[in-house]
Design brief:
The protein is an alpha+beta fold. It contains 4 helices and 4 strands; from the N terminus they run E-H-H-E-E-H-E-H. The protein has a 4-stranded antiparallel beta sheet with strand order 2-3-1-4.
Length: about 100
């Protein structure tokens, strides 16, 4: 499965209901699993992003469905980054020769 890092920022609705964020993560974890996506750790952060989430998805369609589900709740906007493990990146480098 591919690993992704999701940068999140509160919407107006999200900041008004921030206290429910841990419970929403738990609910989201269960919903994502139905799509074959594994939500990893979440970190609430200080700085340009309000939270950072790691997740593993079997394909881009499952990733997109999960992110649409997260976004449609109206609490956060997301920016997603494809992440490579050390071994995966070594394979990328090996292709260059």
């Amino acid at each position: 499965m591919a690993k992704y890092i999701v940068l999140m920022n509160w919407t107006d609705q999200g900041i008004e209901t921030f206290k429910g964020s841990p419970a929403r993560y738990d609910e989201g974890k269960e919903e994502a699993a139905k799509l074959g996506v594994t939500l990893g750790e979440i970190f609430w952060t200080i700085g340009p992003h309000d939270a950072v989430l790691t997740l593993d998805a079997p394909d881009e369609e499952a990733l997109a469905a999960t992110l649409l589900r997260i976004g449609s709740a109206g609490n956060v906007r997301t920016t997603t980054l494809r992440a490579f493990t050390r071994d995966e990146f070594a394979q990328v480098v090996a292709k260059i020769g």
